[in-house]
Design brief:
The protein is of the alpha/beta class. It has helices spanning 14-22, 41-49, 72-76, 95-105, 142-148, 162-178, 193-206, 219-225, 230-245, 261-274, and strands at residues 5-10, 27-31, 59-63, 86-89, 110-113, 134-138, 181-184, 210-213, 251-254, 257-260. The chain folds into 2 domains: 5-225, TIM Barrel (Alpha-Beta Barrel), CATH 3.20.20.60; 230-274, no CATH class. It contains 10 helices and 10 strands. Strands 1-2-3-4-5-6-7-8 form an 8-stranded parallel beta barrel, surrounded by 4 helices. It has a two-stranded antiparallel ribbon with strand order 9-10. The longest helix is centred in the middle third of the chain and has 17 residues, at 162-178. Bound molecules: coenzyme A and magnesium ion.
């Protein structure tokens, strides 16, 4: 089942790791990249090597350092040693990066962060590859704005500027095209629950099925936003039942509204996501 909440935890902090494992996050991402200083990378890897064996929930992921960085190869030595479900690859620029990683790691599942460099915005369709171990794609604005030389990612009115909205939408469409999970980016202001709720619900309406988190307090809000409501489930059940009763119909009326095949696909997806618990 696709994780709703993907909680980052700096891999050099045993205290935060314990808290993350105790949270309700569907997936935990042990970070070896931006949140761990160069001097602590080696000790962070040692902590991950010595994690206790886990049950299947939460899924455990590790964000390694990007391809081409001086830490990348040492990070890969964790694979097969630490009890890790998959790799989060930052600063990915195209599907070829995922394939290169797969050659080195032997097809462990990959979640790529796909909008962190300027060039990355142009390689999106290359993720569509049936041989790829890619299972999720997410987007980020922080590294992109730094790489673009921007002084802010916001417009004068406080909304995300066009460039980052573009990055977000491209990530969503590319993930759908590749048949992998689209995951929305982080809300850095972890004390603002309301902003997180608004953003997560908007992402869910648009088609994202999960969101990155940086603080345990964000997990419940994210899980709720990506869990279909009772009303959504009942509506989806009504659509599925209507098509089951009329298997040859192309278009039907449910609750006074037109529904056709795309609605049926959507309804099945809602029921799949609702069946997770
Ligand atoms: N995972 C697990 N535990 C976390 C956590 C996380 N991501 N973030 C905070 N906590 C813990 C804190 O250690 C603290 O524990 P304590 O009560 O035992 O002291 C508790 O939750 C409350 O934290 P709080 O005081 O609200 O925040 P903070 O100032 O300690 O930490 C950050 C703030 C941003 C440094 C921290 O949330 C963090 O490290 N986030 C992850 C950053 C990251 O991985 N970034 C890379 C991806 S963008
Ligand atoms: Mg980063």
């Amino acid at each position: 089942m696709q994780p709703r909440s993907w909680l980052f935890v700096p891999a050099d902090s045993e205290k935060k790791i314990a808290k993350a494992l105790d949270s309700d996050a569907d997936a935990i991402i042990f970070d070896l990249e931006d949140s761990v200083a160069p001097a602590n990378k080696a000790s962070a890897r040692d902590i991950l090597k010595n994690l206790p064996q886990r049950t299947e929930r939460p899924q455990l992921w590790v964000r390694i350092n990007p391809i081409g960085s001086e830490f990348h190869r040492d990070d890969l030595h964790l694979i097969g040693v630490a009890d890790i479900h998959g790799i989060v690859l930052p600063k990915a620029e195209g599907g070829w990066d995922v394939i290169e990683l797969a050659h080195r790691t032997g097809n462990i599942p990959v979640h790529a962060i796909v909008t962190e460099t300027p060039a990355s915005l142009f390689g999106m369709l290359s993720y569509r590859d049936p041989k790829s171990p890619l299972v999720a794609m997410s987007w980020g604005a922080e590294d992109l704005s730094a790489a673009l030389g921007a002084s802010s990612k916001y417009d004068a009115d406080g909304g995300l500027s066009f460039t980052y909205k573009l990055a977000r939408s491209r990530c969503l469409a590319a993930a759908a095209a590749a048949g992998v999970q689209p995951v929305d980016g982080v809300v850095a202001d972890f004390k603002d629950d309301q902003a997180l709720k608004v953003e997560a619900e908007a992402a869910s309406r648009e088609g994202f099925t999960g969101k990155l988190a940086i603080h345990p307090a964000q997990v419940a809000v994210i899980n709720a936003a990506f869990t279909p409501s009772g009303e959504e489930v009942r509506h989806a059940e009504a659509i599925v039942a209507a098509f089951e009763a009329h298997p040859d119909a192309g278009v039907l009326s449910v609750g006074g509204r037109m529904v056709d095949r795309p609605h049926l696909v959507q309804a099945r997806r809602v029921l799949e996501r609702a069946a997770r618990e």
